[in-house]
Amino acid sequence: MEIAGILDDLVLLTEKAGQAVLEIYNNTDTLKTEEKADLSPLTNADTRSHQILTDGLIKYGLPILSEEGRHTPYEVRKKWNLYWCIDPIDGTKEFILKTGEFTINIALMKDDIPVFGIVYVPVLHKMYVGGDKINPFILDGGVKKKLDKKVLKFDEIETVVVASKSHSNKETQEYINAVTGNVKLISMGSSLKFMLIAEGLANIYPRFVPTMEWDTAASHSILKVLGYNIKTVDGLELKYNKETLLNPSFIAK
């Protein structure tokens, strides 16, 4: 599949999902929340975004793995060569708290790696796009800007560490404490943490609290094409379409 030929359609589709969730976000009376089996929150905005995205992506003839969809058994999934991995709303807790720090994520996967990604921030009308054969860019209020790698130096002046606003633990704090020099910590929700690295606004994102494959796939593709890495604590590249969809602990930088 050549992403370049359908890129404009994917951008419009993501914006359509973003508009739908903003209608609920901006009108609290329409927000409906329930609890999933894992005790994480689910809103009608999540399900609305899921429906819009899957309706739009299904025409390309590829399987779809969505956080809010019915999960295909591994015995079937493991045979997928190309598929979509989507998170209709990454940062549902932030959505409910109305911090604005939530995203809509779409990734195209080839075997066990992400090859294209879109991360959209509806509240900011800001979209990050990049992948194989797609030079990374930002759509900021509809204005397209080239996205280049900006190297922030780890030195004695300042190291910018970005960490989860809603999820932290002892390992995370110990890792941050071990970073040398003057450390500036930014706490943020959703895939925006990855995008701070993409924009050269942060050096490193350590994650020692569980995430799922749809939480990282789109961002991983964008970071990878910019020359950054998301690796396990053992130094291995994150792999996808595993039997368990849970990610190991990782460091993005």
Short account of what is shown:
With 253 residues, the protein is of the alpha+beta class. The protein has helices at residues 7-25, 44-57, 74-77, 92-97, 170-178, 192-198, 213-226, and strands at residues 33-35, 41-43, 64-66, 82-90, 103-110, 113-121, 126-131, 134-140, 143-146, 159-164, 183-188, 205-207, 230-232, 250-252. α1 (7-25) packs antiparallel against α2.
Fill in the keyword field for this structure:
7 helices, 253 residues, alpha+beta
How does this model look, in words?
Helices cover 29% and strands 29% of the residues. The chain is α+β, with helices and mostly antiparallel strands and 253 residues long. It is built from 7 helices and 14 strands. The protein has helices at residues 7-25, 44-57, 74-77, 92-97, 170-178, 192-198, 213-226, and strands at 33-35, 41-43, 64-66, 82-90, 103-110, 113-121, 126-131, 134-140, 143-146, 159-164, 183-188, 205-207, 230-232, 250-252. The strands form 4 sheets. It has a 7-stranded mixed β-sheet with strand order 3-4-5-6-7-8-9, with helices on both faces. It has a 3-stranded antiparallel β-sheet with strand order 12-14-13, sandwiched between helices. The chain has a two-stranded antiparallel ribbon with strand order 1-2.
